[in-house]
Write a structure and sequence with these properties.
The protein is α/β, with parallel strands linked by helices. It has 14 helices and eleven strands. It has a seven-stranded mixed β-sheet, sandwiched between helices. The relative contact order is 0.13. Keywords: Lipid metabolism, Methyltransferase, S-adenosyl-L-methionine, Transferase.
């Protein structure tokens, strides 16, 4: 009775602030609608004890309750995320325990490798359900905005290779090479001598198979290796969607490692997600907590200002920056649509719990990029102190090959 009273008061408070296409189904068969509009999302509380998740509807609380099966949620993922965020705004303060907290954890090779395996070694078949055919798992590049996912991912890779001014026969290191799409493209298009490193065994195995199938084994070497263990020097270095795993404290060391591996006149590009909080905080209302618990253990996001500072501390000079936030919002929207279109097969491959984690995660990322909670920057850099004559006068070379 006490729970019912508290829940009724909470519902009245939310209704007084916002009308939502939401229905709550209670354990006793009763249901409550939050507007006259037909509900697009239904949250079912199978027992009275589940009401506590609604009474404090942070993204961490409701996300965990959905993932663990304590509540049932029906509806399209993007509708779910929008409504849960509306509930959080109506109920919680984006400060204190619901603020964009900075964690600043320690990182080591063993722990980082375990975190990578947790996220990436689900199965290659799992990722194939919602990524493009080349399995590019990072922000795509939409030159016009109407490209297919596959077209936009290829344009992203070419955009990167244009930015670093890759020349025929040069050496290229791709840190966090995923399933090998970028080294393969660099080898095919430029005859570049490529090394790709990943900590994911499943990524490594498939990338090596793709290199062999393409007959490019003489140009592309895919390694199961930590970037900190790479030796030698490279004309070009790319890091795409990897530095989020490095950790805030270790960014100067990470850029220092790139400095050590880069030829004196070389060019590097770092492509990564950043926080839009100047203090390097995660997403508000417990969103970062949910991702850290279920999706990216040990992942941390830095503000772009912190990234530039760490880059300089590592001995690198930033030449060019591009904000691709809206491109990542669109990428995540397309991934979410693909995920939901193949829901039955994904459940079969990954199981119910992992399905629910990713159902929330992909749509949540779309929301976060769409609303400027997080961003994505490509930063082109080189060793600090190089003569200015080595740099092109304009950015024209970045766009010459796009169509």
């Amino acid at each position: 009775m006490f729970v019912q009273h508290r829940l009724s008061a909470w519902i009245a408070g939310v209704r007084s602030q916002v009308a939502l296409p939401l229905r709550i189904e209670l354990w006793n068969g009763q249901h409550i609608d939050f507007s006259a509009e037909a509900p697009r999302v239904t949250i079912r509380l199978p027992r009275a004890s589940a009401a506590r998740y609604l009474l404090t509807p942070s993204l961490a609380n409701l996300g965990a309750a959905y993932v663990e099966g304590a509540i049932e949620v029906r509806g399209a993922a993007r509708d779910m995320i929008a409504i849960v965020n509306a509930l959080a705004r109506a109920t919680l303060k984006a400060e204190g325990r619901f603020a964009r907290l900075v964690r600043g954890m320690a990182h080591d090779k063993r722990g980082d490798a375990a975190a990578i395996r947790y996220h990436y070694d689900v199965s290659n078949e799992f990722y194939a359900q919602f990524l493009d055919a080349e399995l590019v798992y990072s922000c795509a590049y939409f030159e016009r905005g109407d490209e297919t996912l596959g077209e936009a991912q290829l344009k992203k890779i070419d955009h990167i290779l244009n930015k670093i001014r890759l020349q025929p026969g040069q050496s290229l290191l791709d840190i966090g090479c995923g399933w090998g799409a970028l080294p393969l493209r660099a080898a095919r298009r430029y005859g570049a001598r490529c090394v790709g490193v990943t900590l994911s065994e499943k990524q490594c195995a498939l990338a090596r198979a793709r290199v062999a199938d393409a007959g490019l084994g003489h140009l592309v070497d895919i390694r199961l290796q930590d970037y900190r263990d790479v030796r030698g020097q490279f004309d070009r270095i790319t890091s795409v969607g990897m530095f989020e795993h490095v950790g805030l404290r270790h960014l100067p060391e990470y850029f220092g490692a790139i400095h050590a591996l880069l030829a004196p006149d070389g060019v590097a590009l770092n492509h990564g997600i950043t926080s839009t909080d100047p203090d390097n905080g995660g997403t508000p209302y417990g969103g970062g907590e949910f991702i850290g618990r279920y999706v990216f253990p040990r992942g941390e996001l830095a503000h772009v200002g912190q990234v530039l500072k760490a880059m300089q501390q590592g001995g690198l000079e930033a030449y060019d920056m591009e904000n691709l936030r809206r491109h990542y919002a669109r990428t995540c929207a397309l991934w979410t649509d693909n995920f939901e279109a193949r829901a039955s097969e994904i459940r079969r491959l990954a199981g119910d719990k992992r399905f629910r984690i990713w159902h929330v995660y992909l749509a949540g990322c779309h929301y976060a990029f769409e609303h400027d909670w997080i961003s994505l920057y490509q930063i082109v850099c080189g060793k600090a102190g190089q003569p200015t004559a080595a740099l092109p006068w304009s950015r024209r070379h970045m766009y010459g090959e796009l169509t």
